[in-house]
Amino acid sequence: MRELVYYVAVSLDGYIADPQGRYDAFLGDGDHVEVVVGEYGDALPAHAHAAMGTTPPGTRFDTVVMGWDTLVPALEAGIASPYPYLRQVVASRRKREVADDVTLTDDPVGTVRRLKAEDGDLDLWLCGGGRLAGSLAADIDRLVLKRHPVLLGAGIPLVAGATDGPQPFAPVGSRTFGSGVVVEEYARVRA
């Protein structure tokens, strides 16, 4: 079965964005970028690939799942479909207008469980945000955290509102870069 991978940048104090939803405190360049572009290139938006002259490798993810607030910055920049090479699923409790290649769902748990059960070799990428991660906590199979050397003090937590109790994960690996970014990977521990 395919996995739901929560791959996200996070501060030292556990926030994926500041209180206004901004993430510009995270490092955009440094030696960790090779991993971001290489190993996780499927998780870069199309406009970033265009600017760098790269193409999505199509080796890790075939689907991105995000909350509405995660999509909003792209919409505000005039980008209605940030990941046209992935199946794009946006969770929203309200009916919204989205691009033709974006699927809106008001049942992210059911949607993710159906997508995970499909045949395929590539995983689903949980892009954010914190409330969506909280609602999907029991379905997250793997965490890949790009921990940036910054304290935000407040903001959008990595996981908000999880109600399923403790969620055990085991460390799989950790890589520290000269930039100060640490890429940590954890796999769910299933009973």
Topology:
Blueprint lengths: L3 E8 L3 E3 L15 H6 L7 H7 L8 E7 H9 L10 E5 L10 E4 L2 H10 L5 E6 L1 H6 L6 E7 L7 E2 L11 E8 L5 E7 L3
Parallel strand pairs: 1-6, 1-7, 3-4, 3-6, 4-5
Antiparallel strand pairs: 2-8, 7-10, 9-10
Folded structure, characterized:
The chain has 191 residues and is of the alpha/beta class. It has a single domain (4-188), classed as Dihydrofolate Reductase, subunit A. The chain has five helices and ten strands; from the N terminus they run E-E-H-H-E-H-E-E-H-E-H-E-E-E-E. The protein has helices spanning 33-38, 46-52, 68-76, 108-117, 130-135, and strands spanning 4-11, 15-17, 61-67, 87-91, 102-105, 123-128, 142-148, 156-157, 169-176, 182-188. The radius of gyration is 16 Å and the shape is globular. The two termini are 17 Å apart. InterPro entries: DHFR-like_dom_sf (IPR024072), RibDG_C (IPR002734), Riboflavin_Biosynth_HTPR (IPR050765).
